[in-house]
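ENTRY TYPE: paired fold submission
RECORD: A
CONTENT: sequence, then structure tokens
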Amino acid sequence: MNMNHDKNNEIPKFTVENNSNFPKVKILFTGGGTGGHIFPILAIIREIKKITPSNIKINFYFIGPESKISNKLFKKEDIKIKKITTGKKRRYSSFSSFIQNFVDLFFRIPIGIIQSFFYIFFLSPDLMISKGGYGAFPSLAVAKILQVPTFLHESDIVSGAVNKMFSKYALEIFVSFPKTKNLPPEKMILVGNPTRKLLTKPPSESEIKEKINLVKKKPVIFIMGGSQGSERINDLTLSVIPELLPRFQIIHQCGVKNSKEIILQTDFLIPKELKKDYHLFPFLTEDQLRSAYHISDLIISRAGSGSIFEIAAVAKPSILIPLPESAQNHQIKNAYSYCDFGAGLVIEEKNITPHLFAEKLTNLVNNKQTMERMKRKAQDFSRPRSAEIISEYILEFLKQYCNN
């Protein structure tokens, strides 16, 4: 298959000339345990199910680290999960990180490789699709040994270490950003980052009221720190809440581990008459997230690829605050690539103060012309067919693979 360039509008619809010879198929997914890895996998699987002919049976499997997000979402989609032990390289310097790296390198990762070997050997998948991340390393290593056909997807503008390491063995590499670095150009296919299509369907006012208990009376600001929350974005939010709430309604996804402390702090910080305008969630379900995206006037977010492409898919103006400790500064590079397109505004943590943050946010919401331009640019940046295109590539490969 010659698939080494952006074919966003050229992919043929999947067809099988002889469906009777098409066997039961097993597709194995792998990736790190965060939402940034899990949600795109979910989007791809849903699209594969949607476009697969009814007389073809595909079984889906996932192998990776323990994750509450994957457990909950994948079981609903009838995706069989195999948990393995994994480890990662910590880039910060301390004695504890040295010990953790030692344990991961010499114990946890080898155990994960052994677990992966037995699982993949007996499962014998027809192909593997990896979202990268430390959680994908053991299964990718085994896929190489057992010669399982493998596709990669790279979310960020700078390839992660695991995808870079295994890129030479991949059949093709789907990428989210133009000019993605550290991957072989001849294997890259620009498709964007798969997003769940449900998120793009506007909910009714009654649905929004039901899911997040919000009726729009003032401009709505949606603040999120990724699937796990962000302690520093939470602190920044708390520092400006008294200033913002008289003018805005705020939806705040804070992360499960931070929620109890934030509930106590906001109960003290927010005057009684303004509490109805502050909507705190430890974690947003898919339906809640959909409502939050569509009711919002402005979104404040980290700059993971998943968040960026979801914001683009719902065509909302945004302020991105990249995580400065992200590997190879990929969040900073993601953010500037997106915002240089004109779809949002970047504020780096080293430059941010509560006063500056509140001022930038207020000025942006009040500038209707800039907000409208950001909406248009976000929509132009988005690639709504990403999951569909990846699915059609996968099924076209399976047709050729299984008919040979």
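RECORD: B
CONTENT: sequence, then structure tokens
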Amino acid sequence: MALFVEQGFASFAVPCFSTIRSWLLRVGCYALSRPLDRTVPWVWLIDHTIQIGSLKLLVILGCPLAHVPFGERALQLSDLQLVALVPMEKSNGAAVEAELEKARERTGTPRLIASDQGSDLVKGVKDFQSWYPRTAHVPDAAHYGANVLENAWSNQPRWQQFMHDLQGVPAKLRQTPMAYLLPPKQRTKARFMNIGVQLRFARRVLKLLDRPNPHAKTSEVYGWLRDYRDDLTQWEREHALVQTTIETVRVQGLHAQTLPQLEAAWGEIGPRESTVRIAERLRDYATSHQPTEPGERFVASTEILESCFGKLKRLEQDQSSNGITGLALALGAIVGTCSDADLKEALDAVPLKQAKGWIDCHIGKTVQWFRRQFFDQTKA
């Protein structure tokens, strides 16, 4: 809109949604072809975003390592550039490695790749490193921490019984006036990524039960929580170790002094065997993935990718539940910064026909398109 005014258009009709959508697609398409600085070392953040249907998107976001605000704040969307956006029917190590190789043409060989621990990503990065051994790979701290807790707790009978009892509560409350006492839902995938929500809920309910005159219905439904008082204290302590690690490396990154920082932040570990094992695995993470060059720091969090995917889903609104569409190209407009000059350059460089051509070539017929074709047959 500012560009319209600067170009001398004193008044103009309000653009319709399709016009604004076309701007997003053109800017996003330009982000995939604009020149990037190949003379500096980059960090790549890679992950897949998956919806219904067989198509998934391999997304590579990048940032020059010198521009990462270590010690000040975590990475945010404005710090990143869209390096690659690759729709894939099937993903394996060979396919990922091939796309990483193509992405080198834009930024040069990256100094660092950060990702979750998906088997296809890990294999693809490992194969890529066989050709470019200077490229380091750091697992995302949040996914690593979730795996640590899962390995430590999943086989504990007390934990299994606790989660079984907690998951049995909704059946008693869902269709009653006491539905406000429902526990938070557990994720269907990567359950330990947000296990702190269940722990906080259990602790808050336990505080209500400890009051002189606890709510009768609360006591009836959650009275069993009193038996888990000591267990809950231990689980919260172990979860705090992981969460403190995540929060520290999210801002500070991994460097030579990461382990001393973490141990100072953890405080006393205690003698419990599971707590000691969790701390040991976190120490291993901090030391085995730290840079080898003096003064260098590595990014250890890909959480900003989840934020990027979430923003895309908000942009897609209802479409986000109907499979990947061409609007995925708008990822290039979501990340980075875009001045008026940048916006003008993007719109001048990429006509709508080019953006639509990318969508037709890479996205093709969507789940929504096939659904319309299927139900149109009923109109005859």
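NOTES ON RECORD B: The longest strand covers residues 42-50. The first helix runs from residue 2 to 6.
STATUS: closed
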